[in-house]
Write a structure and sequence with these properties.
Blueprint (H helix, E strand, L loop, with lengths): L1 H15 L1 H21 L6 H29 L3
Helix pairs in contact: 1-2, 2-3
């Protein structure tokens, strides 16, 4: 039930909240970059460092999304 509510709230915020849309887009872009890196069978040291940086950036965007979501859950 909570998952469905989250999905609806995310959909609503993507339509009406520019800050959320920007953060969500950044998160999705980092997700795509990680997927591309993860396709490789071997990662150089530099690639491993880059992967870790992208993971941290993606997590930071996820945290921002959660803050915005919680703000809307309690009534904006």
């Amino acid at each position: 039930m909570a998952e469905k509510e989250n999905g609806k709230l995310i959909k609503d915020l993507l339509e009406k909240d520019e800050e959320f849309k920007k953060v969500y887009s950044a998160h999705e872009e980092y997700k795509k970059q990680l997927a591309e890196i993860d396709k490789k069978s071997y990662l150089t040291t530099d690639a491993q460092i880059t992967r870790k940086k992208i993971q941290k950036l993606k997590l930071a965007e996820k945290d921002k999304m959660e803050i915005i979501l919680s703000r809307y859950r309690v009534g904006n």
